[in-house]
Write a structure and sequence with these properties.
By secondary structure, the chain is α+β, with helices and mostly antiparallel strands. It has two domains: 54 residues; 208 residues, 2-Layer Sandwich (Muramoyl-pentapeptide Carboxypeptidase, domain 2), CATH 3.30.1380. The chain is built from nine helices and six strands. It has a four-stranded antiparallel β-sheet with strand order 3-4-6-5. The structure holds zinc ion.
Length: 293
């Protein structure tokens, strides 16, 4: 009996030591597993907050300049912000298409030629970042044309038809509904170190070269690059940039494709994917086959 009692006492002593150690080990393992699985999120968060704080700089209006647009979505492919709508010679926006998030550019710190100019706020953060970065290279950009409603585009187009005749006007001015300016994410830009809004030679000027080389880093693409008139229908416009988001602009830049061609192909691809995945479509297919009442 005495020996048994001693054995039990010994065992409970052992348990008293082993149990906490085992618990500590389990906790340690759980901590490691948790930390490893959270690591990507943590890294992202750290990068994000670091980006925010290094942004610390302010523009001439005293507004903080974010390094990266808070609206930027890495899932750009699904286009949650409607940045990749097809607008070209063949496809028009409806007359009543008007973005819901239009804001005044000047009041958001963007330098412009005309105080009334507007744009979609989703594009403005990156536009500001780009203009701020350009200042480091002594280029002081401003916007001289941005959002145009269907009606305004109608007036603009008619003006150019009167000035140049229909054939020539069609090369540089879009018909109503066909202008990327109706998107609210397209901006015509020039720089104060350039000779104003005059277009001739802008692509050869240091400011024009800077834009062509750097705009993609901020989510912008040059819609009508050199030697693309046969495809886009418009003359080379080195001042006209459309915001498509950083994810998409990087791909367009790296592939070296004409933006409108890429956006159209992407649209076709996305629609085919949606059709594959939509149950309603599957049902209608089955109905056609006579399997459903
Ligand atoms: Zn333009």
């Amino acid at each position: 009996m005495k020996i048994q009692k001693q054995q039990i006492q010994k065992r409970s002593k052992k348990t008293a030591i082993i149990l906490p150690i085992a618990l500590l080990c389990i906790l340690f393992i759980l901590f490691i597993v948790g930390f490893v699985s959270l690591q990507p999120v943590l890294t992202k968060f750290t990068e994000y907050t670091a980006g925010q704080s290094s942004a610390g700089q302010r523009n001439q209006y005293g507004l903080a300049v974010p390094v990266r647009s808070p609206y930027e979505d890495e899932a750009w492919f699904s286009d949650p912000l409607g940045l990749l709508l097809v607008v070209d010679r063949n496809t028009a926006l409806s007359a009543d298409y008007e973005p819901l998030d239009l804001v005044n550019l000047e009041s958001h710190g963007v330098k412009t030629r005309h105080a009334h100019l507007q744009g979609r706020i989703v594009a403005i953060y990156d536009l500001l970042s780009m203009f701020e970065e350009a200042k480091k290279d002594s280029h002081f950009f401003y916007v001289f044309s941005s959002y145009r409603s269907y009606e305004t585009q109608k007036e603009t187009y008619n003006y150019w038809v009167q000035q140049l005749g229909k054939a020539e006007a069609d090369r540089s001015s879009a018909r109503p509904g066909h202008s990327e300016h109706q998107l609210g994410t397209t901006f015509d830009m020039s720089a104060t170190d350039y000779k104003g809004d005059v277009f001739d030679g802008f692509d050869k000027s240091p400011a024009g070269i800077w834009l062509a080389e750097n705009a993609w880093k901020y989510g912008f693409v040059m819609s009508y690059p050199e030697n693309s008139e046969a495809i886009t229908g418009y003359i080379h416009e080195p001042w006209h940039f459309r915001y498509v988001g950083r994810g998409c602009s990087k791909v367009i830049f790296e592939l070296g494709v004409i933006p409108s061609v890429f956006i159209r192909e992407l649209d076709v691809y996305r629609k085919s994917k949606q059709e594959e995945e939509t149950p309603a479509h599957a049902d209608s297919k089955l109905k056609v086959l006579g399997r459903l009442p």
